[in-house]
Amino acid sequence: MKKIVVLGSTGSVGTQCLEVIENLKNFKVIALSAGNNIELLETQILKFNPDYVCVKNKQDAEKLSKKFKKIIFFSGTQGLCEITKIKESDLVFNSVAGFEGIHASFSTLKSGKNLALANKESIVAGGDFLINIAKENNCKILPVDSEHSAIWQCLSGKEKFLKNLILTASGGPFFGKNKKELENVSLKGVLKHPTWNMGAKISVDSATMMNKGLEIIEAAYLFNINKNSIDVLIHPQSIVHSMVEFIDGNILAQMSTPSMKFPIQHALTYPERLNYSWGSLNLASIKNLSFYEPDFDTQEILNLCRDTIGDASFSCALNAINEVAVNAFLQGKIKFLDIINIVKRSMDKINSIKIKSIEDIIYCDKIAREFANNFILKK
Ligand code: MG
Q1: What is the CATH number of domain 311-379?
Q2: Where in the chain is the domain with CATH 1.10.1740.10?
Q3: How far is the CA of 70 from the centre of ligand 1 (A)?
Q4: 69 alpha carbon to ligand 1 midpoint, in Å?
Q5: Fewest C-beta in 10 Å: which of 40, 121, 169, 279?
C-alpha cells in the first residue's frame, strides 16, 4: 500500500489527484490539506477517510474535529508542514497554490520524503536552494507540471546526453492577438483557456505567457540545464507536452490528451507505470499538430523570466511580483496588460539578495510583494 499526503486537495490539480488515486489499486490517502473550501473537504474526508487533515483556519480545524473524532486536525502553515512529516507516508503530493506551497516543499524534503510537485512557485522561488535540500536529504522531486513531466519521461536517465529542452505552450486564450486587441480583455475571457481546465492564477499566467516563463525557470533548476538551452514553441493543440533534444540530434517528445491526470498518475506511480481509466489519445481524429515560434512580445516576457535564472533572489522576486499583480487583476484593480507592465517595472528596481536559508527566501518574497503592492497603489 502506497500512502499519500495530498496538499491542496480542493484545488484543480488536487481534486484530479484524488480522482486518479480513486482509480488506482493499493494507494491510500493518508492526509489531506485544504484552504477555505470546507464543504468540498468534508466530502473528500468522507470518501477517502484520511488519518490527518490540515485546514487554513484554526476555527475550521476545531469545528471539523468535533465532527470527525478519529482524525487528527492541524491548521495554518505550521500545520501544513507538520502533515508533510507524517512517519508512515510514502509520498507528499504538493498542489498548494502560490508561494505558500514552498513551506510544505521544504518540510517534505527536510524530513526525507519524496515530493510530487505541482506547485511550480516552490522551484521558481526556492531555486538551487530547494534542489540542494532534496540532494542533501536523498529525496526525489517528481515533477507534476505537464511540461516537466514530459521532459522527465523523455530524459529517463539520459541527462548527460541532453542538448536542448523544447517546452511547448498552448499560447493561451489570446494566441495570435496583438497588444491593441488585449487592452480591454475581460477576466472571463482570460479564464477561458482553449485546451486546459485550470485554477484562476495559472489561467491568468497562461494568458500573459508568464506561466511559460516560470516554467523555463522551473526547468533550468529541475534539470540543471543552461538557461539558453531551453526553447519554447507554441503548440495550440496541447498534445505534445514538451521535447528533449539529445547531442546526437535525436528528439523525443511525450504526448497525451491535455489532461493533468497523466502527469499526476506518472508522479504517483513512479517508477512503475499502471493502467489508467480515462480517455486515450486519438491522433487520427486530431489530424494536425502545429508548432510556431513565439512572437516578439512573448519572447520579451520569456527573456524577462530567463534572465532571473542563476540569481535565486531575482526568480523569487519575479514570482512574488507576478502573484501580486495577478491577484490585483483578479480583484478588478488593474487591467490585463498592467500585469506584465508591473512585473517589468518592478523587476527593474529589485536588488539581489544572497539566499542562504528559507528565511532569506521569505524575506526576499516579502520585499518584492511590498514593492509591487506600493506600485499598484500609486497607479
Ligand atoms: Mg505547465
Answers
A1: 1.10.1740.10
A2: 311-379
A3: 37
A4: 39
A5: 279
